[in-house]
Write a structure and sequence with these properties.
By secondary structure, this protein is an alpha+beta fold. The chain has a single domain, classed as Aspartate Aminotransferase, domain 1 (Alpha-Beta Complex). 33% of the residues lie in helices and 28% in strands. The protein is built from four helices and eight strands. It has a six-stranded antiparallel sheet. Helix 1 packs across helix 3. It is globular, with a radius of gyration of 15 Å.
């Protein structure tokens, strides 16, 4: 885990996302410019593909896209923790949020990645997490 400075709190980064995702059962990492993890052929966390008009797409490994389940949970995260989460018009109507990794603690990241995995894992695979 990286730190903001020698005395600052630990913050998360792309290596932490990778370690957390790969520690979960049945996860496959898809070859990409950043990180992209699936369970049961369903994505649950990946690098943010930033798109700005007139510019080519940039894969941001400092921002994770997370599956959150539904619009209510998405809005709760966006409104409750605006320093951590954001969205863009391309993601309107989708149960996805973007997480600023440098503002997330490792514990919060672990919770979010695990929750995303649980929501995307087929029932027959999800039982293996609790085993």
């Amino acid at each position: 885990m990286s730190t903001c400075d020698n005395e600052g709190p630990a913050v998360a980064d792309a290596d932490d996302v990778r370690a957390l995702a790969l520690a979960l059962p049945h996860v496959v990492e898809i070859d990409s410019e950043g990180f992209d993890f699936r369970v049961g052929d369903k994505g649950f966390v990946w690098s943010y593909p930033e798109r700005e008009p007139g510019r080519r797409r940039v894969i941001r490994t400092d921002v994770a896209v997370l599956f959150v389940g539904d619009e209510a949970e998405k809005q709760a995260l966006l409104l409750g923790e605006p320093d951590l989460f954001f969205t863009t018009p391309e993601y309107d109507g989708l149960p996805l949020v973007m997480l600023r990794l440098a503002r997330a603690t490792p514990a919060r990241l672990a919770e979010l990645v695990t929750d995303a995995w649980r929501m995307r894992a087929p029932a027959d695979l999800a039982k293996d997490l609790d085993a």
